[in-house]
């Protein structure tokens, strides 16, 4: 924002780890309701959890949404020596015996990065 000359002075950034964005969201909404200049950034997983009501007593209507500024594409990667050569191979293996397929994922439980 500073480099694009959208701000006349540097913006203060505060990291609030934990709760997949819930900590920051609730702090801004509950503790700074009169501070109209506060901006909160989220990941797509955080937005999904917010929409599912997992952020506590405040929902998506407690703020004004400005913009989406990024895109998160999902991907499935396997080792080079994997028996799965394409998505169809993986789906067939999962349908045949899901207990034999080990899956690791990033993101929050219930987000688009998780297979349920």
TrEMBL record:
Pfam families: TctC. InterPro entries: BUG, Bug_dom1. Belongs to the UPF0065 (bug) family. PANTHER family: TRICARBOXYLATE-BINDING PROTEIN, UPF0065 PROTEIN YFLP. It comes from Aquicoccus porphyridii. This is Tripartite tricarboxylate transporter substrate binding protein. It comes from the Bacteria.
């Amino acid at each position: 924002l500073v480099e694009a000359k959208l701000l006349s002075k540097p913006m203060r950034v505060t990291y609030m780890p934990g709760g997949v964005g819930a900590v920051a969201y609730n702090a801004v909404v509950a503790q700074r309701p009169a501070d109209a200049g506060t901006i909160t950034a989220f990941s797509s997983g955080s937005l999904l959890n917010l929409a599912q009501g997992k952020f506590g007593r405040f929902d998506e209507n407690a703020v004004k949404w400005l913009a989406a500024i990024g895109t998160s594409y999902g991907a499935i990667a396997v080792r080079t020596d994997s028996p799965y050569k394409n998505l169809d191979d993986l789906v067939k293996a999962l349908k045949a015996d899901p207990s034999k397929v080990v899956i690791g994922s990033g993101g929050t439980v219930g987000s688009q990065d998780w297979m349920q």
